[in-house]
Write a structure and sequence with these properties.
Blueprint lengths: L4 E6 L2 E7 L9 E6 L8 H10 L1 H10 L7 E5 L7 E6 L9 H18 L4 E4 L11 H16 L7 E6 L2 H20 L1
Parallel strand pairs: 2-7, 3-5, 3-6, 6-7
Antiparallel strand pairs: 1-2, 4-5
Helix pairs in contact: 3-4, 4-5
The protein binds ligand AR6.
């Protein structure tokens, strides 16, 4: 399988887009697209628990749950990371104010990154699988939230988005190029 990757420098931080599985990346914090019961499931959540082993679920049970639009941290079990940040995105067509909740899920992870002073983080495309959020609408929310965060003082040297399909990767790439051009023009 071909590897697609592109990198962009924004202020002091490197933004990376990668086509692949999030369990294969080496970063301080891997973000999980979780549910509010932290009960595990399919997609990213299934892949992380399978690859990371039972310790992650044990810690999730102790935490007990997470509100939509928020995130909680656990350790990363067997994965090559220090933390898993379990973020709960909105269910499209179910939650009112889905746009705000989606941005808030990303912000919650970025805040956890600062609290734990991590230097690298990998996001999946939260809510765009089982939760049905159209990728074309979700990509600018995800990327703009990261751009806005980086404008403040941050411990993050690298922010990665790991996309699972070629189409998702292409959409994120085009959206990021457009958003960074807007930043330069402002
Ligand atoms: N690496 C990166 N991206 C992936 C991977 C992977 N290994 N697997 C899927 N994707 P989803 P959600 C993409 O469904 O929409 C779970 O059951 C996928 O193609 O993982 O937030 C949870 O337990 C899509 O673009 O998360 C929740 O109940 C994106 O990741 C619920 O699904 C997100 O898809 C959360 O749904």
């Amino acid at each position: 399988m071909d590897i697609f990757m592109s990198t962009y420098k924004f202020l002091g931080t490197t933004l990376v887009l990668l086509r692949g599985s999030i369990v294969d990346v080496h970063v301080d914090a891997i973000v999980n697209a979780a549910n509010s019961a932290l009960a595990g499931g399919g997609g990213v959540d299934g892949a992380i628990h399978r690859a990371g082993g039972p310790l992650i679920m044990e810690e999730c049970r102790k935490v007990g749950g997470c509100l939509t639009g928020r995130a909680v941290a656990t350790s990363a079990g067997r994965l090559d990371a220090k933390y898993i940040f379990h973020a709960v995105g909105p269910i499209y067509g179910h939650h009112r104010d889905a746009e705000h909740l989606l941005a808030s899920a990303y912000e919650a992870c970025l805040e956890l990154a600062e609290q734990h002073q991590v230097t690298s983080i990998a996001f999946p495309s939260i809510s765009t699988g089982v939760y049905g959020y159209p990728l074309k609408e979700a990509a600018p929310i995800a990327l703009q939230t990261v751009i806005d965060h980086i404008k403040k003082s941050t411990s993050l040297q690298q922010v990665m988005f790991v996309l699972f399909s070629n189409d998702d990767y292409a959409m994120y790439e085009q959206t990021l190029v457009d958003l960074l051009a807007e930043q330069h023009n402002n």
